[in-house]
């Protein structure tokens, strides 16, 4: 089991929600945390609050901007130090049917949720490989395992995160780099991203801490996948997709309310 004390962890989307919760958990583990977000006002507020717990710094960055990410990496290396743990948490959602989904919303969703992870990994991974130590955490979603209506761009991005993470993990293992890669697939979390959406039958809204505590454990144990709740997301859903026909899965989604759960979505900060 890894000891996280004294490690430098960089968290994207750190100002609110899951990113803030995980940053706090990392601080309590003894990490120095580098908070990154595009929302300068919320980021400054979060940094001030978390600084009471442990050592942290903050940087404003649009992670969908490749050049900005590479500049961030250079700045962090000079001003803070080498990053041992990279957490790609930043993400957005726009829950609308494809023909109602604006083109710029599609591009923004893919760029922030998926493409940005390529830039952050290319920026911070070389140092980890050189030091033969490090860990990358990529946030996906249960929506990266099972797609549902109104989430075409979101699900596409999260399916992509899982593929990217699994391929990258195997590359690190192939070269015996000792750099771990974890992808995280939570069900709906109470961060405001899915405000207005209805919960699916048999599920409950998760608190951010329900997920982030498991992420900390996964980093320590070099676990490849975190699913919350574990059995339904990690085992039951993939198994059902294998055993059921596509028409049967569509019927199940409709019966459980998954086909219409996002019809009433309002969300936050994604307009």
Structure, explained:
The protein is of the alpha/beta class. The chain contains 8 helices and 7 strands; from the N terminus they run E-H-E-H-E-H-E-H-E-H-E-H-E-H-H. The protein has helices at 17-28, 40-50, 66-79, 103-131, 152-174, 208-221, 230-243, 246-256; strands spanning 8-12, 32-37, 56-60, 85-88, 134-139, 179-186, 225-228. The protein has a 7-stranded parallel sheet, sandwiched between helices. Strand 1 (8-12), helix 1 and strand 2 (32-37) form a beta-alpha-beta unit. Helix 1 (17-28) packs across helix 6 (208-221), helix 3 (66-79) packs parallel to helix 4 (103-131) and helix 4 packs parallel to helix 5 (152-174). The protein starts with 7 loop residues before the first strand and ends in a 15-residue tail after the last helix.
Total domain modules: 1
The poorly predicted ranges are: none
Q: N-to-C terminal Cα separation, in Å?
A: 42 Å
Q: In CATH terms, what is the architecture?
A: 3-Layer(aba) Sandwich
């Amino acid at each position: 089991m890894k000891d996280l004390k004294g490690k430098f962890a960089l968290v994207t989307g750190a100002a609110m929600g899951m990113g803030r919760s995980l940053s706090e958990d990392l601080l309590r583990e003894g990490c120095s945390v580098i908070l990154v977000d595009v929302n300068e006002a919320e980021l400054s507020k979060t940094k001030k609050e978390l600084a009471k717990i442990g050592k942290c710094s903050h940087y404003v960055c649009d992670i969908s901007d490749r050049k900005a990410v590479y500049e961030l990496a250079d700045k962090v290396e000079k001003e803070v130090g080498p990053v041992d743990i990279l957490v790609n948490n930043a993400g957005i959602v726009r829950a609308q049917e494809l023909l109602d989904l604006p083109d710029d919303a599609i591009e923004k969703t893919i760029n922030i949720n998926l493409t940005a992870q390529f830039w952050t990994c290319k920026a911070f991974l070389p140092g980890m490989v050189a030091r033969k130590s490090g860990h990358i955490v990529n946030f996906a979603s249960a929506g990266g395992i099972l797609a549902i209506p109104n989430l075409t761009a979101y699900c596409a991005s999260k399916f992509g995160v899982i593929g990217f993470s699994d391929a990258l993990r195997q590359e690190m293992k192939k070269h015996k780099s000792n750099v771990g890669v974890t992808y995280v697939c939570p069900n709906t979390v109470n961060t405001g991203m899915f405000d207005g959406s209805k919960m699916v039958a048999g599920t409950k809204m998760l608190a951010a801490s329900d997920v982030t505590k498991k992420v900390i454990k996964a980093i320590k144990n070099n676990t490849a996948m975190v699913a919350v709740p574990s059995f339904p997301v990690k085992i039951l859903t993939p198994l059902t997709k294998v055993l059921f026909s596509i028409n049967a899965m569509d019927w199940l989604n409709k019966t459980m309310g998954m086909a219409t759960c996002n019809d009433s979505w309002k969300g936050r900060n994604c307009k």
